[in-house]
User: Which sequence fits this backbone?
């Protein structure tokens, strides 16, 4: 018996007839069989807009990302369109925060101002808005605050009414798509109903359907100045330790309420969830949010020279896509679009 036979313990004795390395031996062969390709048109860039003029304030924990004023937005949108990105998602930081987040439902609020600038510049470029209250409330919770047995809580059904209002305000101001991120029960249905009643039955909803209560949102809360002043968001966002199938229930409910696109968030440590949702609903567009903490960790390590940013980002986002998400929301959208050309 040759030493090669001894080493081959697989029952079908495939080796040496079968050699997996034959499909890896040069770039042309590897390219031919690579199934997962990132594409700029499937990437969405998050942008943070706040009132002001010529404002471009870098977010310390998210290098290369800025809070910008609406007059700066046209430059950003034009660049995103030129790079062939799929769209942008806007987050608003109001001049003044209050108990109910009144700027969020104000037709003259920060998001309508931003939409006016965006749509004037690039009317055909996809502009999505985040629909939630945490950026607008002084307490930083994602809806109407209340107390349940003495504990901080959010009044689900009172929040739904406000979400429907916010949705209509955004749609009227020109948003192409709405993305509710507050994890309120019934949020998609409430928004859908409100939109349909006001003549916006054509405006799609991309629901943050399976959104986990994640420590990876840390840097975003600096960016949006939206950290909860007391308590946390575990009363509405999902528990990372819950059965993975709970995500399927969340998605199923949102689809029943009329969600057009569903999202899993965060992305990189929830690849199992992305895979489950994608397998279960192959016909539903699936998005994943590569969140702020995932971004900042890589940036910090790259700044130290400890990892190769470009290689790590392309590998990570490829994994997200391979898991089953076609749409990726990422702070690297512009970089990736440049790297791909
Ligand atoms: C809530 C919202 C959050 C993010 C997107 N929408 C923060 C949260 O739920 O605390 C996080 C995005 C990120 O971390 O990049 N409106």
Assistant:
């Amino acid at each position: 018996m040759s030493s090669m036979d001894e080493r081959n313990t697989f029952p079908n004795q495939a080796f040496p007839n079968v050699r997996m390395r034959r499909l890896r031996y040069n770039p042309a062969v590897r390219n031919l069989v690579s199934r997962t390709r990132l594409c700029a048109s499937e990437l969405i860039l998050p942008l943070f807009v706040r009132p002001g003029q010529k404002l471009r304030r870098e977010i310390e924990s998210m290098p290369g990302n800025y809070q910008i004023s609406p007059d700066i937005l046209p430059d950003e949108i034009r660049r995103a369109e030129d790079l062939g990105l799929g769209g942008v998602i806007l987050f608003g930081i109001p001049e003044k925060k209050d108990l109910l987040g009144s700027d969020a439902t104000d037709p003259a609020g920060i998001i309508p101002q931003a939409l006016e600038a965006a749509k004037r510049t690039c009317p055909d470029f996809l502009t999505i808005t985040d629909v939630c209250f945490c950026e607008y409330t002084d307490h930083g919770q994602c809806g109407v605050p209340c107390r349940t047995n003495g504990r901080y809580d959010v009044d689900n059904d009172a929040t739904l009414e406000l979400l429907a209002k916010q949705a209509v305000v955004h749609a009227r101001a020109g948003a192409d798509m709405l993305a509710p991120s507050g994890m309120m029960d019934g949020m998609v249905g409430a928004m859908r109903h409100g939109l349909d009643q006001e003549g916006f039955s054509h405006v799609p909803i991309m629901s943050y359907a399976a959104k986990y209560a994640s420590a990876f949102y840390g840097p975003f809360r600096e960016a949006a100045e939206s950290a909860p002043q007391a308590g946390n968001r575990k009363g509405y966002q999902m528990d990372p330790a819950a059965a993975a199938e709970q995500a399927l229930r969340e998605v199923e409910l949102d689809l029943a309420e009329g969600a057009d696109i569903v999202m899993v968030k965060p992305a990189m440590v929830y690849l199992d969830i992305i895979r489950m949702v994608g397998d279960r609903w192959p016909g539903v567009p699936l998005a994943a949010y590569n969140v702020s903490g995932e971004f900042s960790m890589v940036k910090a390590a790259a700044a130290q020279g400890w990892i190769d940013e470009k290689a790590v980002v392309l590998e990570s986002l490829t994994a997200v896509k391979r898991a089953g998400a076609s749409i990726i929301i990422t702070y690297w959208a512009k970089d990736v679009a440049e790297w791909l050309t």
Q: What stands out?
A: Residues 37-340 form a domain with the TIM Barrel fold (CATH 3.20.20.70).
